[in-house]
User: Fold this.
Amino acid sequence: MAQVSRELGIGGLAKLASNECPLPPFPEVVEAAAAAASGVNRYPDNSAHELVDSLARHLDVAPDQIWPGAGSTQLIAATALAVGGPGTSALYADPSFVMYPIATRIAGSEEIVVPLDERHRHDLDAMLAAIDATTTLVYLCNPNNPTGTIVDAGSVDRFVDAVPDDVLIVVDEAYHEYVTDGGHRSAVPHAVTRDNVVVMRTFSKVYGLAGLRIGYAVGRADTLAWLRRTQVPFSANSLAQAAAIEAMRHPDRLAKRIADNAAGREQLEAGLATLGVRYAPSQTNFVAVFPERDPSDLAAALERRGVIVRALGPVLRVTVGTDAENDRFLVALAEELA
Ligand SMILES: Cc1ncc(COP(=O)(O)O)c(C=O)c1O
Assistant:
């Protein structure tokens, strides 16, 4: 490991803080985006019909059950505005994705925060109990950021059944593609059969298009029509639309990326276990570490060693990088903890 670290040199940074894909988009995707660039004197297709059709085929749903936007972040904010507002509340787990409190504040709703359980998973019973008469929105981040944990399919089914019909459930599946646990299942079937469920997905992670800002929601046509009232026009730009369409044309290479990510995740987890550092077994492209030392302090120390990771409360979150980057993180962590 130390040799790899030396080879990388101290100049280059290992950016393991934002759960990005460590590899560039597939070459054909870069070409598609470059080709689309010559047409950017025109506004993008506001209905993104080609992308929507590709996604509908990809997911086996109807085109009007897809809502694209400038990353799922934008769709989360638009959804919060559409169903929230003063006098309402939105409920989410803690720690979970930082966008939920931001969207709740943008909408002017109250926050109801429910801690994860002792295994760092959503505590669905406690979440159900916390829903009150003001609640219009519940977030279920599955797998959860920043802990990398999932709630299994049966638990999601029971939760969806138990949440009142007038409360919208946003199932955020930003990391769905990385999951290897057989107990996990997408909530898309719920989203297309229930008025109060939408699934959010993104091209920012496994497809490697974070800089282009493109994501989508899946839900019933009427539900999506209601939510998209709060979205500004032309949100999905033309480069992003072209790139996302092309990105879905390479399932074999995507599968390789997913396998490589799982191997990198194991590399990180094995290294952490060897160092005796606590972590949450992950189903995503990042691992939540629970160091004895203050995570902010440790993240700052690692950054001085050229390794950028994210401190989020009690969690030090490290994104799965290339083999060399993962090793570099483990070497830096070992040196810091020595
Ligand atoms: C759980 C979760 N949802 C959504 C997103 C946002 O993705 P996008 O880049 O599509 O806005 C992220 C990004 O880190 C995330 O962690």
User: Anything to note?
Assistant: Confidence is low (pLDDT under 50) at residues 1-10.
